[in-house]
Amino acid sequence: MRVPMEWLREYCELHMDAHTLAQRLALTGTEVERVEHHGVSELEHFVVGHVLERRKHPDADRLSVCMVDTGGSTPAQIICGAPNVAAGQTVGVARPGAVMPDGTRLQKAKLRGIVSQGMILSERELQISDEHTGIMVLDQAHAPGTPLADVAPIATEVLVLEITPNRPDCLSIYGVAREVAAATGAQLRPAPWEYDPGSFGVLDGITIVNQAGDELCPRFTARIFDGVRVGPSPLWLKARLMACGQRPISNVVDITNYVMLLTGQPMHAFDRERIAGGRLTVRTAHDGERIQTLDGQQRTLSERAVVIEDGDGPTSIAGVMGGGRSEVSDQTTSILSEAATWNGPNIHATSQALGLRSEASTRFEKGLAREQTLWAQAVATRLFQDLCGATVRPGTLDLGAPPPPPVTIHLRDARIERLLGMSVPRARCRELLQTISFGTADAADGLDVTVPDFRRADVTREADLIEEVSRLAGLESLPATLPARRTAFGRLTAPQRLRRRLEDGLAAHGLHEIVGWSFQAPDVSARLLLDGEPAVELANPMSSEQARMRTGLIASLLDVAARNHARGATRLALFESGAVYLPDSSGVSGVAREPHHLAALVCGAVRAPTWREQHPPQADFFAAKGLLGAVLASAGVPWQLMAGSEHPFLHPGRRATVQVGAAGVGWVGEIHPRVASGWGLSETVAAFEIDLSAIEPPGPHAFADLTSFPAVHEDLAIVVGEHVPASELLAVIDSAGAPLLRSSEVFDVFRDEQRLGADLKSVAVRLSFAAGDRTLTDEEVARQRQLIIAAVDGQLGGRIRDAQ
User: Fold this and answer.
1) What percent of the chain has a predicted confidence (pLDDT) above 70?
2) What is the pLDDT of residues 410-462, one digit of tens each?
3) How far apart are CA 454 and CA 438, in angstroms?
4) What domains does the chain contain, in order, with CATH numbers?
5) Where are the alpha helices (DSSP H) in 146-290?
6) Taking the model in full, what pTM does it have?
7) 3 state SS of 655
8) How far apart are the first and last CA of the chain?
């Protein structure tokens, strides 16, 4: 919503500039996007001039040399290219030093060898309209040298407001003036729509029927005007429309737009003589029915749309846009002005279905008050009479159900103090509410407040009234208080604690958290070699590149890695924690599942180079596995790896499945080189991704006392088959060595076909034995060692490697 300050001041006695007002409005809940300057600057250089003489330029067929009286001691010589310039005209002149709307500062100049001391102005050069085929000719009554700003509104500051959907009353100049008066204490002038509508329910010469019902069309009003003279609008009207972003067309059309901007109520003017059959019917459209709208486009309607038709068919789409058949033309002499109230959700659905938004539909879809129709008819009546020479026929047609009864809400003093943390005197509450047109009456413990119709949808309960009081009294003045807790308290759930622990662990290991889009492009699956992967498709995506919901986190990690790699950051350690979206495989609910995943990616050197280590090791499978193991162990989650994985985007020989208990909860491995190169990554990329929703949070950690008795360390070299994973070997050792075996870890792997045999490997394991109540003897350790060797032999077919 664009609000020119020049127009706003007509209804509100403001004594502050636009920027100060913008700050004040922002504190009362009206968001001001920006303040713009519309029109020209350096106004002292824009004056009224009188053309004394006009002669043809000796060296240019299309230029004229004019002598113009601008109120100075001598006339100014000005070169003009307009074809309609003539001696005796009163015109607008920009003298040297004037600043035009595009920021250009006017200077003396030579045009084909003749000096020009200014510019004779067209309406477009002043941003009054788009007219530029000729100069702007003024009334002869204006004396030369009169400031042009006194004759026409050639400059104003414009507030660009972002109006929230619950405040359609602020989609009008007077509505904003009402808010400004309440926010600043300025005097609000009376509304400009008091008039005598004559008798209701009659309209001579036209029949109107509402077949759509009161639900779709709560109110329909109409008046007829004869003797209409269609022509250009006066300068002040054009200038105000242009400042609001509307293009002037003709006085009749401009008046309907002006009324909409002033009152918030859209209107439509029909050429009465082009209404076939002298009858208008409001009805729902037939499915597939077509109409040509004012923009020249053929529109196909659905049966939920509402149309206004005459004897030849639909003539406008109700609440959205008028039709071409009955629009006002230069030959129009009689008009029917229509102002109606339409069902907001229905107008929104129709506008969306047609892909057609207009200033009217933007207002109607938010829900307008029924009383605004007569506001609009009142203002339009006066303007049609003053600017078009029209004569209004007696009577006003007013169709619709009786208005709903007024809504009164009880506002308690104690409730105000409890919600705001401060008391607001009752007299102050009454004053604030009355400034925004709420009715008030004293009650025993507060006020009985009557809500005006134009706020009925927004203010429905006592808390809404308290919000109005607080924002107008000044939110910045409210004291800082803590909310009353009573017995309420917050606590993380077990899954939330696990997630927080794992995220903190990755951050502690130097990884940077990213937040990727929940949407992804349709080709991501193919880039990950997952052709045909089922995914949740969006019915109305923001763009074609965000048409599906993501099924994993690895793609967004690769996106961020590629973006950083392209900018020279080759050493990367990233992680993301977030929901993924999987189709309902059961087909029962049809609702997507949203498990929470945790994923990490490492690329490049695992450590920064130093003078002692200029070429640190590169990230690989074991770097990702180490990160995964470190954070799971810190959270007390028991885990293991199983060789292989079903994910084709991983290197076939360097991937594994992550298991917690007997369930697979994710994967770890190196990204397939073909996939990595598709993201522009040339280095080895390792990653893991686990489903946190599939992990049962561990219980409380049991405290274990550190023994003061020394441990006994022994190393075993165990020969097993190549197919035996180290994790399985350690599991057998830990089970057989309990309870005295405190830890076991692999520290070396040796392969030699001549010494060990084919398909065999020697795994060196370091064992630590200890007891909590004594120092172990050699015999006890030897007995445990023999149990371990026997278990390895019996369960894995392993043996102790012979010393050679």
Assistant:
1) 97
2) 999 999 988 888 888 999 999 999 999 999 999 999 999 999 999 988 999 99
3) 10
4) 2-39+157-184 (3.30.56.10), 43-153 (2.40.50.140), 207-400 (3.50.40.10), 407-473 (3.30.56.10), 494-694 (3.30.930.10), 712-800 (3.30.70.380)
5) 173-184, 235-243, 251-263
6) 0.69
7) strand
8) 90
